[in-house]
Amino acid sequence: MKMRFLTVVAAVALLAACSSNEEAGKANTGAGTAAATTAAAKPGVVPGSQADFVANVGDRVFFAFDKSDLSAQARQQLASWVVFLKKYPQDKLTVEGHCDDRGTREYNLALGARRANSVKEFLVAQGVPADRLKTISYGKERPAVLGDNETAWAQNRRGVGVVGE
């Protein structure tokens, strides 16, 4: 009887773990930006909101190890941020700078600040008013992915846009 109960519990846990987390994964990675821009209005998503930004634009850009300069791919992603911000001129954006867990807390806070400022400088250069943007560095304090491997580190070296008022 005990074994049957444990089997049922394990099966339920397995099914729960395999439930549809694809949408959450896309939101966290900013994946699907090209395809998502064609779906302008998703049910329940308020235009110009953080949910709209994540679903239809993608809320993050990634950086190389120990770097704060923008890659070509990051610049392309940020160009879509510019379009969004110009479409919704009432929106303000906070740019968060994040790092992987290597290095000291102080070093990573400074690197995160440089990353956030790189994003802000790009947006301003593309015509987004500076008074609509603010930056904050979280350093290594808010990892997107846990783990001590290159895959996890690469996801944590990021700049994230947060729409707010």
Automatic annotation (TrEMBL):
GO cellular component: cell outer membrane
Gene3D superfamilies: OmpA-like domain
Keyword Cell cycle: yes
Keywords: Cell cycle, Cell division, Cell outer membrane, Lipoprotein, Membrane, Palmitate, Signal
BP GO annotations: cell division
Primary location group: membrane
InterPro entries assigned: Bact_OuterMem_StrucFunc, OMP_bac, OmpA-like, OmpA-like_sf, Pal, Pal_lipo_C
Any Pfam family hit: OmpA
Localization per record: Cell outer membrane
Annotated ranges, domain OmpA-like: 50-165
The UniProt record lists the keyword Lipoprotein: yes
HAMAP family: Pal (MF_02204)
Protein name in UniProt: Outer membrane lipoprotein Omp16
Native species: mine drainage metagenome
